[in-house]
Amino acid sequence: MDLSNSSPVITDPVAINQPLLGSLPSNLMQYSVMPGGYPVPGMNVSVNRLKIGEAIVSGLLDAMKSSSPRRRLNVAFGQGNSPDEDPAYSAWMAKCPSALASFKKIVANAQGKKIAVFLDYDGTLSPIVDDPDKAVMSPVMRAAVRNVAKYFPTAIVSGRSRNKVFEFVKLKELYYAGSHGMDIMASSANYEHNAEKVTKSLLQAVSGVDGATVENNKFCVSVHYRNVAEKVLEVRPVIDWDKGKAVEFLLQLLGLNDSENVIPIYIGDDRTDEDAFKVLRQTNCGYGILVSQVPKETQAFYSLRDPSEVMEFLNFLVRWKKHSM
Length: 325
Ligand SMILES: O=P(O)(O)OC[C@H]1O[C@H](O[C@H]2O[C@H](CO)[C@@H](O)[C@H](O)[C@H]2O)[C@H](O)[C@@H](O)[C@@H]1O
Known about the structure:
Removes the phosphate from trehalose 6-phosphate to produce free trehalose. Its EC number is 3.1.3.12. Keywords: Hydrolase. This is Trehalose 6-phosphate phosphatase. The protein has three domains: about 40 residues, no CATH class; about 190 residues, HAD superfamily/HAD-like (Rossmann fold); about 45 residues, no CATH class. The protein is built from ten helices and twelve strands. It is globular. It is of the alpha/beta class. The chain has a seven-stranded mixed sheet, with helices on both faces. A three-stranded antiparallel sheet has the order 7-8-9, covered by helices on one side. Strand 8 and strand 9 form a beta hairpin. It starts with about 30 loop residues before the first strand and ends with a helix. Bound molecules: ligand L263DTV3. The ligand O=P(O)(O)OC[C@H]1O[C@H](O[C@H]2O[C@H](CO)[C@@H](O)[C@H](O)[C@H]2O)[C@H](O)[C@@H](O)[C@@H]1O binds next to loops.
């Protein structure tokens, strides 16, 4: 589903744990369920449409099967071949090296800078399993993410609903962007802290303007210039939205949009994560790390093979940070 033209708006910026950004526009929710149980956009009752629908469903299923990581693993490496023995894999690793093997280089570039960590959920923090409701995160992975969040601002950016991904991760100290980043939440403590920072800098900015006042509304900050002109300035995102935009938004929200001094690291495994990799590559800021066991066209700079390597990388980051403090 291409959501690139969607425009969520702020619906309820006040309540704690409610979306800062709103939900999917209704025109993107027009799905009906085909006989057989597959949801297909715009397909329903007439016979011709049914046949077209079946063809599309079958095409989608073929496409899904052929792009399945499991199938690609078999196709790419054949039986009994390990990835390391495969020339295509070696060529890919030269283009998109292991983030573990390149760890020293990554942290050397991060010296004196602030690292921000962005983590996709499925396939990154939890292994891909058949039943989406069983894609649980292991306790050791949760501990690794908890530790990372002690030292670096850390966000989960998932295609799942924000509530659902929170149910899996269960760490209140993180930031969460659900529905591919269209639904963003941070703990109230984080918001309050950042709202305070924003309030402070806005107060400085308007200090020379007679009649202008700044109001900290906890989740947003208003600049009142009623006594300067007859309005309140309210700024909110107009959204052409994807995970890349979500990362940019979170960096800004956290006051980490200083590309000279901040290194965002985004780890993800699927096509939707490419939007985030692309943003980091295009802004020449930070690193995208693709989780994949097979060669893939990617905008990421580095790769990790699976969630266990992701965990190792997160543990490396924590160890490095502790030693460099
Ligand atoms: O952005 P993500 O956190 O990676 O979420 C993307 C989708 O992940 C889930 O589906 C995938 O993982 C399932 C559990 O391992 C697996 O059964 C499914 O085949 C994968 O596509 C989730 O169910 C989706 O809602 C997310 O959009």
